[in-house]
Amino acid sequence: MTIPILYTPEEVAARLKVTRRSVYESLPKSKLRGLQAGDTWRIAEADLMAFLESRKARAPRVGPKRPGYQRWLAYFESTRPTAKPPAPRKAKRRKTE
Description:
The chain has helices at residues 9-16, 20-26, 45-54, 69-79; strands spanning 6-7, 35-37, 40-44. By secondary structure, the protein is an alpha+beta fold. It has a domain at 6-54: Arc Repressor Mutant, subunit A.
């Protein structure tokens, strides 16, 4: 059996670029699994990777395979501007004396 790599909450906060407090708040809520020995916490690398995998962004729910796609497309087409944008204005010249 191999010994897992353990991180302190400070090391996890540095890796995730969050505050130490947010890591400590996530531990008792079981959002982030950790081992508590007395008043110290340790987070296994496998638990940290599992936490990151669970927090991945989901794919958008709009597309041709989604039921609301035709309605979204009709709305998008109706709100698209049809007129050409106005031509850029010429710079005014200053009168010099």
